Structure formats: C-alpha cells, structure tokens
Amino acid sequence: MSRIFVTRKIPEDGINLLQEAGHEVTISTKEGVLTKEELIAELGKESYDAVLCLLTDTIDGEVFDATDAKIFANYAVGYDNIDLEAAKERGVTVTNTPGVLTETVAEYAFSLMLAVAKRIPEADRFTRAGKYDGWAPELLLGSDLKGKTLGILGAGRIGYAMAEKAYRGLGMNIIYNDIKKNEHFENDLAATYKEDIEELFAEADIVSVHVPLLPATKHLVNGVRLAMMKKTAYLINTSRGPVVDEKALVEALKTGQIAGAGLDVYEDEPALAAGLSDLDNVTLTPHIASASVETRGKMSLIAAQNIVAFLNGETPENVVS
Ligand code: GLV
Ligand code: GLV
C-alpha cells in the first residue's frame, strides 16, 4: 500500500481506481487552491509516495523537497505550473493527461469562435436586459465563417482537431504556424503552412491559439502582431493566458484594431486585465475548455493510472519529464 496526496477534490473515477489498487488516498479538504505554503505543510504531515496535482498548483523545488513522493501526476495536459528542471534534478517523474481532452477543448474553441462571430453572448445580454423591442434589419450583425481563413497557432492535437472541425464543418480555409510543417494539416485539411507567423496574423480572419506556455511562447500574441490583424478578425485563446499580451489585447479591442476575442484563459488567472470585462466585443469564460463531465472524469482516471503504473515500478504512459 502506498499513500497518495490529492491537492483538491476531483471527479471520483481516478480516486476509486487508486483505492481499488489498494492505495490510501488523502484529498485536501480546502475549498479552493492550496497556496504553496499550505501544500508544503500538507505534504509534511504524512509520508506520501505520490502526489496528484492540478494546473493551479505551483510545483517547484521547494515542494519536491517537502515530500518523498517521486511522482507528481498533473491533472491537465499543460504542465507549465511544474518546474521540470527541478523535477529532473531530484529524479521526480512528472506526468500529464493528454489525448482525452483533445476533442473537448477543440469543441470549446470552436464554440467560442462561433459565439464571438455570431455575437451570441452579446445578444443574450441584450435580450435579457429587455432591449429587444422588435426585429430590425441591422440588429447585432455578425460574421459568416464559410470560406473565411482560420489561422491555427500550434499544430498539436488540439490545434488539429479545431482545424478539422472548421474545415469539414464550416468550409473554412486553414493556415497554420508551428516550429515545423505538419503533413496531416497539409494532406487532410488542405492547410497552408505559414513559416512566418506574421503572415498568419495578417491573413487570418480568426486566429486560434493552441501552443503550450513556454518561455518562447510567452506573449507570442503581442501588440505588434495584433496590429497586423484585419480589423474584422477575431482572436480565440483556449491554451494559456500568458501566450497573449492581455493588456495589448484590451487596447486592440478598445480601439477596434480587431473585431473581437473569445478567451477562456488569462494572463494572471483568475484576475482579468484592467478594462477587459467592460468590453462588449469579447467573450470571457473561466478556464473551462476541458470541462465536460466525460473528459474531466477521464482526466482523473488517467492521472490515477499514471500513479498506479509508477507505484508498480512501470513507466507511466504520460511522462513529460
Ligand atoms: C487545461 O487547461 C489543461 O491543461 O488540461
Ligand atoms: C494537446 O494534447 C496538444 O498536443 O495540443
């Protein structure tokens, strides 16, 4: 039997799996996110063999040093919350939960694109406010997407699934940027590679962000690039907030440099950049792109499977370190 610490309540699928494998599971009883100090204190209370952590936990050398646990299983596909260098130095294995959330996040990015282009949240606010006083020819005009160009930043699994839905479902043209060409984009989606990222910003009617957060992708979407976009274009971000310079985005939205944006992630979550929530041409949601009942259950199962494999002396399927 091993002891496992879970930093916050998650869907029970994974917890059941850990218990059925004979392990003792302790789940943080705090309502919200543990601060780093609280996490360190929790890890010091028992001798744990594994930690199941969330993207909202800051996991660095000090946290690793607070426990004997040699596996940290992140309940997310992104793992920018974990210091991999510090993990490596200490021989700690880090895992994530890729794959299961690909379609869910892509469906969400696709929904945000439609919501923004068709101005659905804005129209809902308008109607609820009692402002609808009769059909009008030019009321809340939105944009069509068929034949428009979708620019995908980051040609990974989620970027591909988003592009596929837009290409097959809406008849959009696909352009994409990544550090290298991706033959699936070219062969399956008739997509065009834009090695020069700025060409993508200039040509796209929608830019959708699907890169992980790395030093090289911080502020990949900056003021200069936003200014290169069409005035009729939209930005969609379901990846990580710091990939977009949020202050610059507020300016671009305010001054009409771009037409609108759909955001599920923020630079300094859960805080929003000043002025962002005053704007009507932006749809804001609270980091829920992977939040379907099905997927959040599967993510908890996968995080648990990674831990069980590790504790059995096997290599977990989703090692990122
Ligand atoms: C969610 O943001 C994830 O990385 O899984
Ligand atoms: C995540 O699963 C990605 O590769 O986009």
Radius of gyration: 21 Å
Could you tell me the strand content as a percent range?
A: 5-15%
Distance between the termini: 25 Å
Give the number of DSSP strands.
12
Proper CATH architecture of the largest domain: 3-Layer(aba) Sandwich
- Main sheet record: 7 strands, parallel
Structure notes:
The chain is of the alpha/beta class and 321 residues long. The protein has 2 domains: 3-100 and 293-311, 3-Layer(aba) Sandwich (Rossmann fold); 102-284, 3-Layer(aba) Sandwich (Rossmann fold). Helix content is 36%, strand content 14%. It has 12 helices and 12 strands. The strands form 2 sheets. Strands 8-7-6-9-10-11-12 form a 7-stranded parallel β-sheet, sandwiched between helices. The longest helix has 19 residues, at 293-311. The chain starts with a strand and ends in a 10-residue tail after the last helix. The mean pLDDT is 98. The structure holds glyoxylic acid (2 copies). Residues 55, 76-78, 101, 290 line the site of one glyoxylic acid. One glyoxylic acid is lined by residues 55, 76-78, 101, 290.
Topology (SSEs and partners):
Layout: E1 3-6, H1 12-20, E2 24-27, H2 36-44, E3 50-53, H3 61-64, E4 71-74, H4 84-89, E5 93-95, H5 102-117, H6 120-128, E6 149-153, H7 157-170, E7 173-177, H8 183-189, E8 192-193, H9 197-203, E9 206-209, H10 223-228, E10 234-237, H11 246-254, E11 260-263, E12 282-284, H12 293-311
Parallel strand pairs: 1-2, 1-3, 3-4, 4-5, 6-7, 6-9, 7-8, 9-10, 10-11, 11-12
Q: Key features?
A:
Rossmann fold, 321 residues, 12 strands, 5-stranded parallel beta sheet, alpha/beta, 7-stranded parallel beta sheet, binds glyoxylic acid
